[in-house]
């Protein structure tokens, strides 16, 4: 049977990069979102609201996917609401697809909040896990919408008989406009504003993150693991961490990012300087920059997500992720993290999202 992929959340960082890779590998690829405009050739867009089963029925009426890749979520005010809404999104989609009897595999993208806790209890003292983070670590004894999403996949798989895989990236580095968790673009926008104002590129986070070991996940690496797990029987019905495969310290990487943009790097000075506060009044500055350089997105809030970058860079512990499980099964993709950022910055310039950098 031909492989027919349904990428749920195709407009996001994970979904758009996955759709690009699926097309490159010859899959028939559908991209579902409320506003599916990934700009990827050969991706067939489907517009639907995951909280509205009727809209899903309409959008999927002529589509029988063999593989479903669920890469999206919706942030709510409380974790109780996160659980209610995000579990319903998974449940609604799989319920609409079940009568087709076409689905062979479902992949769900979650993240390291599986180990570190949800937004309102993120990396708090008293619940900090042992690092490196490993897939066999037990769930935390607190509510977490990632667990609810997983449970919906497990329940549907038991009923319909498809295989599944769970993928837990660290911070995803890649391009997407309007994404709520977008460190790479946030730092590019912040560095651009620092250059415009003649200010140093000041480290916003904690001492533990500045000095400790960390890792991130290139969206292209995540895409390859998603497809690898779908194609590899030994990887079915398992959860996998996924990062670039290298480790770094921000005290090493931060000056390199500053150098790329031609700004002065300022390291940890004993105080956390949250980007959410630092960039709170930068909307007008960004509009001026966008106008002067003919950029395609003048809205700062569409590009930067400082609140989420603050969560990552303000953690009180170092975070490193164990990749042994997928390595043992043959997944060998590797990506240098500094190059992940530089590739993204180059793409953002080419697409006129940030101004060209004279180097």
UniProtKB/TrEMBL annotation:
Protein source organism: Spirosoma rhododendri
Pfam family, one: PRISE
Entry-linked InterPro entries: NAD(P)-bd_dom_sf (IPR036291), PRISE-like_Rossmann-fold (IPR055222)
Record domain PRISE-like Rossmann-fold: where: 66-355
Coiled-coil spans in chain: none
Name by which UniProt lists this protein: SDR family oxidoreductase
């Amino acid at each position: 049977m031909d492989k027919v992929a349904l990428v749920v959340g195709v407009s996001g960082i994970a979904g758009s990069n996955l759709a690009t890779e699926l097309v490159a590998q010859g899959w028939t690829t559908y991209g579902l979102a409320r506003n599916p405009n990934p700009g990827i050739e050969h991706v067939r867009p489907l517009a639907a609201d995951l909280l509205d089963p009727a809209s899903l029925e309409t959008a999927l009426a002529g589509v029988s996917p063999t593989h479903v890749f669920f890469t999206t979520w919706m942030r709510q005010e409380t974790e109780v609401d996160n659980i209610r809404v995000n579990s319903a999104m998974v449940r609604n989609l799989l319920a609409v697809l079940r009568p087709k009897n076409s689905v062979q595999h479902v992949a769900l993208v979650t993240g390291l909040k599986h180990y570190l806790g949800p937004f309102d209890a993120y990396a708090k003292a008293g619940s900090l896990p042992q690092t490196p983070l490993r897939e066999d670590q037990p769930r935390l004894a607190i509510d977490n919408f990632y667990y609810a999403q997983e449970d919906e996949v497990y329940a549907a798989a038991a009923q319909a008989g498809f295989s599944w895989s769970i993928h837990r990236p660290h911070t995803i580095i890649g391009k997407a406009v309007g994404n709520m968790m977008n460190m790479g673009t946030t730092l590019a926008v912040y560095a651009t504003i620092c250059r415009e104002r003649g200010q140093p590129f000041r480290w916003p986070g904690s001492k533990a993150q500045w000095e400790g070991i960390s890792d991130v996940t290139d969206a292209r690496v995540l895409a390859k693991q998603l497809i690898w797990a779908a194609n590899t029987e030994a990887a079915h019905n398992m959860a996998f961490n996924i990062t670039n495969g290298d480790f770094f310290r921000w005290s090493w990487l931060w000056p390199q990012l500053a150098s790329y943009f031609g700004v002065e790097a300022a390291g940890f000075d004993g105080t956390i300087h949250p980007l959410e506060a630092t960039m709170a009044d930068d909307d007008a500055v960004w509009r001026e920059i966008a106008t002067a350089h003919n950029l395609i997105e003048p809205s700062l809030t569409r590009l930067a997500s400082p609140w989420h970058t603050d969560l990552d860079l303000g953690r009180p512990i170092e975070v490193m992720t164990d990749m042994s499980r997928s390595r043992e099964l043959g997944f060998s993709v590797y990506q240098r993290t500094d190059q992940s950022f530089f590739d993204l910055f180059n793409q953002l310039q080419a697409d006129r999202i940030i101004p060209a950098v004279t180097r």
